[in-house]
Amino acid sequence: MGPNALAAAHVLASTPAKSSSSSLSFLLIIVVIFGLLYFVMIRPQRNRQRQAQQQQRQVGNGTRVRTTAGMYGTIVDSDDDNVLVEFAPGVQIKMMRRAIMNVVPDEEPDGIRHTFDSEPTAEADETPADSDADKSETSDKREDLSI
User: How confident is the model at residue 113, as a pLDDT?
Assistant: First the structure.
């Protein structure tokens, strides 16, 4: 056997060892990526779901809540699966407990977090001089459409 044959035999003998170590490192990389995805995405989402379920179970009558639809109301009555939420005086809707997104803190009684200190300007309260004419035209149209 010449030097070329020995070199070829050496290359063939060492090739499977390199491919098995590279496949092992590839498998290790995949496992590490899945581990990172679990700790970065899946675990925090599960914690948020547990916290939301705990809040939904603990709400009682008189609690101010925000629904998943973004509506603010007060719980009037509740049972195991459903709650009766009052959104305005006399406006009550029966909803599933899962529709409660969170409890509104006491410092936000109207459900709105005020972020500015300035008062509304008087310009918003002013109406144009010809608004009375518009009102009469609108009321005339409504009278024509009534039955």
Answer: 59
